[in-house]
Design goal:
Number of domains: 2
Number of helices: 12
Helix content: 40-55%
Structural class: alpha/beta
CATH superfamily of the largest domain: Uracil-DNA glycosylase-like domain
Strand content: 5-15%
Number of strands: 6
Order of helices and strands: HHHHHEEHHEHEHHEEHH
Distance between the termini: 51 Å
Largest sheet: 6 strands, mixed
Shape: globular
Strand order of the largest sheet: 1-3-2-4-6-5
Length: 281
Amino acid sequence: MSRKKLINDTINYLKYYKEYNNYQVFADELKAPAEDPVFSFNDVSLKEKDIISEDLKNEKIKPGSENYKIQEVNIIKQQEVVSQPETDIEDWKSTASLEEFENTIKNCNKCRLLAGSRKQIVFGMGNPDADVVIVGEAPGADEDAQGKPFVGRAGKLLTDILKAINFTREEVYICNILKCRPPENRNPEPQEIVNCEPFLFRQLEMIKPKLILAVGAFAAQTLLRSKEPLGKLRGKFHLYNGIKMMVTYHPAALLRNPNWKRPTWEDVQLFRKEYDMLVKS
């Protein structure tokens, strides 16, 4: 990736972020720096190699030794994961349908670690004109294998929850913050969320739901731009870009802690009541 393209892509991303996510971008953030940064995503530049060598010297690791080589590789890998590398995906912002959107980003490699370990992306599924969108955190092993969101034990529980408030999976739309499974089902990392959340925002923009149900802390905090714990966010409605949104516990959390089933039931009953009022109006 050329330095000029990198800078332009970053500026365009910040503009998009400001437009769709209520993110306050200062004017100087949208200006290119006086000098181009010296680094490369695909290969480590000479200047980077000098920096890495200096770092390793500071750690008193002998150049040429096995430990030196291992540490050098680790530093490079860390840089690759944190940075957004060049991707072969086309301009997903101009896609006209969710199907076209999914096909456009299915080979996304923004997060090299996730792209290298996934079987496939888990884009989302359901009614493309749904009034209700369910947003989770990230795919698990079952979802990664099938390419569908919420298909394991947590998925069955979500289906039961929806059924209890008179919704079917076919009439809602279900997706996640991340489209790729994190290794060992660990929590999404901040940079992975930054890389992937624009896809979710675009999905919501295309579907235009009447209500959003965010399940789990990462989904809630990402959409609301909040650091509040889930316990303080649930039990009331919030607004995401003018859309009413309810926050509740993730079905996987309910499997670990059955005590959260009652507050979840209270949340989804309130959610259904609000939906009925919106439909009537």
